[in-house]
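protien #1 (seq + structre)
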Amino acid sequence: MPSSHGTDVRDPTSTKRTYPSRGRAGDEALSPPLASVVGMSIEVRPATHARFDDVATMLGPKNPASTVCWCLSHRIDAKTNKVLLGPARGEFVRALTRRRVAPGVLAYDGDEVVGWAAVAPRSELPFARSTKIPHVDDLAVWSIWCIRVRPGHRGQGIALPLLEGAVGYARAKGAPAIEGYPVDNRGRKVDLTMAYVGTRGLFERAGFTKAADTDAVSGGFPRVVMRLALS
């Protein structure tokens, strides 16, 4: 995404520095955190309808007729997830991008989309009814449950600004707190197919602290509730 770096603007609700940028039609006025990574500048933007093609790049299959997750497995109930097949899954996500609250955020290196993070109020998600992941309190908390960096761009430090951008979006939408459910892998390698949940270390670098243990396991590692207060 092209950006103008002439003048920096501070979000009064955040200590992070943000920058004005030229967004696409349908983008919100919010310019989420821009973070410097070695050799690149990463900008994180809401996954609005105007950016659905980039959402499809991150989540969709190479064959449009194929059935893939589309980051819906932990967003919708099991019955709906089971009956949504093939292109219907993509159309469901397209409809989500038309809502007032975007279904997630996208990371860009210049004009190229390089990452996706799913973020939403927990009350809208199966996590609200989970028997394995406890509720820490009664706050109307938001959840981050999927962090995905595009192949060819992994290992370059994109996950952290992507996570911070998701936090910034939740804050801008009035979330009082945000939480994730990463693995506590203690530095050990996480299988790539399960890495989307993130690691405790990643969340700690973004300012989260451990709030609770869970009964959930991913890739052989226990998952923990990591929480960050936003207000």
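ok now protien #2
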Amino acid sequence: MPRANDVFAGNMFALVVGAVMLAASTTVLAKESVGKPLYCWQGADGKWSLQRFKPLIEVKGGTVFAELTFAANVLEEVRLRKFYADSELSFDYMFDVTGKLKEIKGSVQVKTVVPKLPGDAEPIDIPDWLGEATLTPGADGKIPPHHVFYSREKDQIEKPDVADKYIAWFNSAPVYRTISEVPCAARLKEAKEMNATQE
């Protein structure tokens, strides 16, 4: 009959092995679903170019690029990012395994500008505020009415006084019904090959 100490040691060994295997399987799954994005950058002439590295962002605004994220060799998500002098507008597009649009989410992150008053050594630093909404279009392809959630550093806030100017951009979100319509769509085969060789 096994001794109590031997049984306890055996159980502990099984628990440790199980935990290691679970961690390893979780790591593998994470690697399959989360990958480094490729970048599709829009030049001043309006043309899109595919690259591995994140484009430089102009401080004065004007930078536009899309992040293409793959799960294995399937395009899973596209994030279109537009930069302005005081804000960043983003549209996140999620696709199913057949390449059809599942969801669009919009967000705008806006700097809070506080005038420097006489006698102030430094301008007051207030964190950016964020506006987020689900923008998935209806059957007519149009962005429907939407509720906007406002926050600052993850804490919900009231609608900022200047919000309407920025939130209006949500209504002009490009609608990509399938992956064949996204930026750099003509180069998706090349993008898949580039994604497969990323470290």
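The CA atoms of residues 140 and 175 lie 11 Å apart.
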